[in-house]
Amino acid sequence: MFKAYERTLGAIYGASLRGTVFQAKARHYQDSLAMAQSGENIPRAVYTTLVQEANAGLPTLHRYFKLRSQMLGLKDAGYSDIYVPLAAPAGSYTQAEAEQMTLTALAKPLGADYVSKLAAGFKGQWMHSTPQRGKRSGAYMNGSAYDVHPFLLMSFTGDYESVTTLAHEWGHAMHTVYTARAQPFETSEYATFIAEIPSTANELLLADYMVANAKSKQEKIFALSQELEGLRGTFFRQAMFAEFELAAHQKVENGEAVSGETLSNLYLDLLKRYHGDAQGVVKIDDIYGVEWAYIPHFYNDFYVYQYATCVSAAAYFAEKLGQGDAAARERYFTLLQAGGSDEPYKLVKAAGVDLASPEPYRALVRRMNRVIDELEALNAQK
Ligand SMILES: [Zn+2]
What we know:
The protein is mainly α. Helix content is about 65%, strand content about 0%.
């Protein structure tokens, strides 16, 4: 059954790859990656450095998986075990509580102006949050009504994920508010390359707040493990996707035939390497090689790597903002106000983060190690 599925999806994605590669050749780009990055003039080194540093950081990811196995009492961890939560959530939250938590968590790092604008947004009914029949899933912020205010949509269910989603989406909304105030309409749209920085920075700041203010050991374990899951999913998983996409395009560029099976073999190799299969960290069964076929983002060539670059920049800012670094805060607000006034790579670089250099990715891996240290110490306590 799954072989037929693999064959069909291989034909569809293969056709998509050949289409992209053809266009890149016809338009005389160096290759399909160069074509994808040309619109916003993002240096190739951003992509290649991300992949290189994610690989260099794999011992940290494996360290996290090993700690999970230890805490869950697993001898042979499999791929599905990485989704088992390490602790039960502390309880549920009302939306008013989630808004208050977000305001409190952001007050010190981002300051009074940000928090008063955010509070005004909360009061202004900009968001539809009630779950209801027929409503689309997911969470979105739409900032295209330039003269009005952002509109948000999510389904607030009261779990911790709802709280982080709220902080995330309002990070987008505040980015839009700051940009719209500073930029004329023409340059008021910011690039995807920047868009996920303020939203994930809010998530990380909320995580720091939750860890620092946990009322019990269980609550702290929960907050730390939520943060680790976020970093795994936004950094390592997206970097793995990025590596897969580049290799798949390169196969076509080298004139190799691409079928569902060759894509699954390629994906399986990456899955094994990222999860430490050979080192006995997480055992990856061959059937998971077909997971690539479930990722709709691959039809938007060279897109997902931006989640990983954005969370790396966000980790840099969250650290500096948390330390009360006034110069970094000023540069951060300059970025929030910059919209689409220049090339996105340049804007982020001017704010202090060179995403073509290894440093931001190393900072993210350091953050992950710090969180693992804390979780490990907590787990060792009796
Ligand atoms: Zn987002």
